[in-house]
Amino acid sequence: MNVFDGSDEEDNNPFSGTTHLYASGIAAVTDGPDDYDFTEPSINGSSDENAQSNAVAEPIEETDEPAEEIDDDTLQTWRFASAELSRSSAFETSYTNLLGQGKNPEVIRIVDAGQYRDIYGKYAIGYKIEFGGIVVTRRYSEFDSLRQSLCRLLPTIIIPPIPSKHPIIKYLFNPLHAKKDIKIIERRQRLLSRFLNNCHKVREIRNHIVFQKFLNPEYFWKEVLNTPPISILPMNNLLAPPLNPTKPSPIHLLLPTPTVLTMRKHEQLIGRNDVMEIKFADYDSDLIRYKAILQPLNKTVRSIRSNIQTYSAVLSELGAYFNAFSLENSVFQVSALFEQMNRLSMGIEKTGQAIDVNYVSAEIFSEAIMISLEEGSKEMLQFIHEAQRVLHFRNFKQEQFYTIETTIKKRKDRIRELKEADLQAVRLGEALKLNAEESPTVAQVMDSMTRKSANKNHTDKQIMGLFRSSASPNNKSGSDSISSEVEPHLLTKDERVVQVNKLEKELEKLNECFKLIEKDLQQVNESMDNSLNNLEKYFHEKWFLIFRELAHNITSWLKDCSESWKNAKQSIDSI
Amino acid sequence: MSESGTLTNKESDTKILSVLVSDPQKQKTHSQTYITYQVSTKIDGKDEPNCVVRRYNDFVLLHQILINDHPALLVPPLPDKKVLNYLSGDRFSHSFTQKRCRSLQTFMRRLLSHSELSKSRILETFLTSTDWDVYRRSLTGQISTSEVSDVLINAFKHVNRQRDEFVEIKEKSEKLDHNLSHLDKLFHKSVKRVDLIGQNLKKLQSSLSGLQELCCDEKELSNSIKAFNDGTMQLIDSLNDLNKYVDYEYNVDIKDMINYIEALKQLIRLKDQKQIDYEELSEYLTRSINEKNNLLSGYGSGNYFKSKLEELAGINQEMARRDKIAKLETRVQSLTDEVEKSKQVADEFEKEVLKEVEQFEQIKTLELKDSLAALAQKHIDFYDDMVEKWSKIEERLESA
To answer: How many domains are there within chain B?
Structure first.
């Protein structure tokens, strides 16, 4: 672990001044970071910093009073009843009981949505989540922050999507209102419930403490956001263990940070003929093709839905006019036709009823299309977007890998060059020595050469010192400073030795990094492969579900309409 | 020439059972292009239907003759000339000729359902005779179409007294007209929507085909998509057929009904016209009688100045008075006759029109029944067919 030995810097802790677990040094943290089970006292030390950074991140929340000062009367009774008394309690047991039921499609339900008073006494739209008999209410913004946290906590996992935010401008003019926006709230209720269940299907999320806390009414969500693991998330996930970014790992900080500009082209990587590489390239192109199909599909479905809605509105009007028509369909009462005309009225009325039934079932049908196909394809598109984001993370990891690999190669080459130059110099020296014995001119030149090199040696030491400090270990890629580019035979022997030593030391660290990134990459590959596979499976199941639902809805729509027209026909035939 | 035989022998009682107007065909001669329709008539006692080919102008001629011959009868209207379609050159389009064919069919059916008009000889000629062409050539341009202007002149005059029945009829026909035109508009809207839905479904289908290609490794899923897509295809086709029916036939029926009511209103206006004639005449008569009575009772006619003037002019007042009375006498006499006559005409017309209204009710009821029944049947056929197909698809998908 002693990467930093030999360095002259006293405090090179990159975490200092951040909210990272290591902010006050590695020793301050006990081992066993694999489980996230941090108890509250352990964060007391850094809670001040947390408060500050969170105040910056969420300025809106700033005005809220701290939870402790809230009068018990303002709390929602059904939410916090006896919660504080038994914090460990029933939830954990029921959660573990339910963990086994991961296969069940609807383990988590959102049973209600509507206005409620949050713990700070503010009115907001809350979603009542029921899970294993335990109920917790969360707001949309809390779902949103849960998702964002999960994305950062599990960078290799495709995190299920949630419905997109209400457009901010709309919100400013017309904030969500429990009574007015029933449609939007219902839709969110449905989609958020889908989100929770999709999360629950993913083992990594299901078992994650943050997700569990979200479902647990005993935790205030704001508190969860301000405590580990969320509060100790690293600034850059690329410089942390990919499967567990909050796990401390100093070597990760030595990794290069690739930017979009320095990214290699995909084709170059595929050229390496790596099995994994090809597989992931396939994933990538599949996702793009999928997206190219889903995007127009989603658009078409939207317009089908809206056309059916308009159609059903026309039908409803039509039904109304048939009704009026049934009352006023004759210009004159002919006594001989009295009976027949009565029946005609009946027939017209029944036709109107048939059209009314058509209207209602068209309405239902359009709703069904919206829920299954429109929202389904939208969700898939969001999923694809997520998958692409995750793949992007992998590309960065990949880039880290290649950067280190090439750097190692460069360093090795350089060492070899330097050593070769050494050998050459020895040979040259011997040759010159032989010559010098014969020629005084050569001897003079040699003399001046050694003196010069001694001078140079002196200045070089300064350069070397500067290099050491400037080429700090975390930008290895940029460490090809001027002196190392100098042609080896222009350096003195001593310089060469110093460089070789330095390079070998660097190489040592690089090799360590390489091992790490190799492992990282393997983990990333494995985890993502798994996640993408699951996504593919999920898509397939989803399609089956969608087609089944649609076919069912189409059939029942057709059946209803057929029935209604048969009724009408009977009545018409009796005219 | 067997047709001409039946023509000359009017009493032979060729009973026409039904008429079918069908098969619009585009005809091209050197000078003009037009559409012909096949008119086939089923005659009692004959197996083979009798077929003739007529064009729209022939129908117009027939219609005109019938109107002129039977002013008191409700002659069913023809579909509009649709000048706009002529201008846009759309009159040879499939949808236009199909719709017109349907309207012409309705026109013929209404004629045949009418107790008087169905016996008309000219109709029989139109339906059966090859002589019709000769008829047409000699008659075209000779028939006046004057009644329109009459109606216009009296458009602002109203009948003073009319029977309660007609008040009711007028009111109700307004309402019926109103309802029907709304139905017409709404059906148009629905046809347009369904058309759009069909187009959308086509797009959806092609998207799903793309998906199927993408998932071709997954046999089951790809089969499901195919099953679904096949069903969608059938849905699109049948929906299209149903929509065509509503557009080409049901909607045309509604339009024709609206026109029929319009013709009825026209007839009632004509009746009002007769009534107005009578009312004006009798008013004139009353005035004349009053004037005569005034003269007889010796109260000076006109004013003082007038009599003074006449005195100065050397006219013998007494003589002039007698003269006037005599003139009024004859006028009253002839007016009384006229009023009597016009009252008879108006009453006759009124009776006739009431009968026509009854006939209209009968024909309308039958027609509405038929078109509703056909509408319902088309829907039932569509839905049943689709239910059957989609139930199978549902099963296939369930088992996947």
So the answer is: 2
